[in-house]
Every structure is written in structure tokens, then in C-alpha cells.
From TrEMBL:
Residues 10-70 form the HTH tetR-type domain. It comes from the Bacteria. This is TetR family transcriptional regulator. It comes from Myceligenerans xiligouense. Signal peptide: none annotated.
Amino acid sequence: MNEEKVTKGQRTRARILEAAEQVFAEIGYHDASIVKITQAAGVGQGTFYLYFSSKIQVFDEVVDDLNRRVRHAMIEASSAADGRIEAERAGFAAFFRFTADHPALYRIVRQAEFVSPGALKRHYTRIVEGYQTGLAEARADGQIGDIDPEVAAWALMGIGEIVGMRWVLWGPDVDPGGPPSEVPPEVFEQAMTFIERALAPTGATPHPPDEPGESA
């Protein structure tokens, strides 16, 4: 019986988080309210307070949940790759797929800059920490050049963030209010060519970009 209650509670909590993600993404933190979140989740306000103490707490947990999910998608995709460059390709492809399916990642994380700077810092540093470790191992193995793994991790994350915002969030017409899109194959290939050249060991010849439509 206790196990059934825990399972039901976990489902309810997840439903509230999902509803909060939707509300924060659609109308923003300041216009959101616990009433609107509970209405979207189909639960009462009393139920909300069983799991969260405030609007800011549920916002922070939405940021953490999005972070966990996008890191999982990237790690799962890149872990099967052969070598660091292929891992970059697989990881970036997974990141762009995730953001196309969950544009709330951009909208909510950017709100965190003003709403919860701690959540914003936590989001980016968690991504960089794992990234930095992989780059350090690749440098030690001679798969990439003699670059600072921490600097490279932040730079690569910045590329993914801005390229994704331009083509995923804004779409082909650079319309901030338009529907989410996908990174075009030719844009993906150009980004990967840039990244491969930046990471390549000294004297290595980067692969030419694939033809459009051949991206991972």
C-alpha cells in the first residue's frame, strides 16, 4: 500500500512539474501563479503544497528537471560515439532535437537569469562539468588539440545555445514569436565543421562538411 501511495505521489508531482513548465514557458514566471499551475495540472492548491512550498521552488525544480533531461539525452547519444569528434556530433544533434521538442528549455532558462540566478548557474555548470571531463580525457588521448577543457566546454555550450536559439526557437524567419523549428542540415554541418576545426589536434585535417541531409 505504501509503495502504491509513493507511486501515485510521484505521478502527481511529475504532473505538477509538467504543468509548471508549460505555464512558465507560455506566460512567464511573473504572470504565472500557483492557481494557473494547479489548473493546468488538474489538481487542487492543497495538493500543490504537499510537494512544493512556493512558486519559486517549483520554478527551480522545473529548471533542474529540464537540465537533467537534456543532459541525459546528450550523454545517451554521445556515449555510443566512436571518438570525441563523433561524440560532439551526436551530442549536438541530441541537444538540437531536445530543444526542438522542448522549446521551454530556452524560454525558462533565460527567465532564470532574473528570477533565480542560482538555478541559472546550476543549469550551466552541471552541463559544463560533465563536458569538461570528456574533453580532458580526449585531450589526454590525443583526440583533440592542446586546449583548456574548461574554456572549450563553455565555448561549445555557447555555440549550441545560440545556434539552437537562432534556428530552433526563432525558426527560419527569425521570428521570436514563431513556432519552434529544427536546425537545418546545412547549418548543422557548418557548425560541426567549425567545431571540428577548433578541436582538431595540431596538423590534423578536418573532414569536409557532409552534404545537406547527411547529418546525424
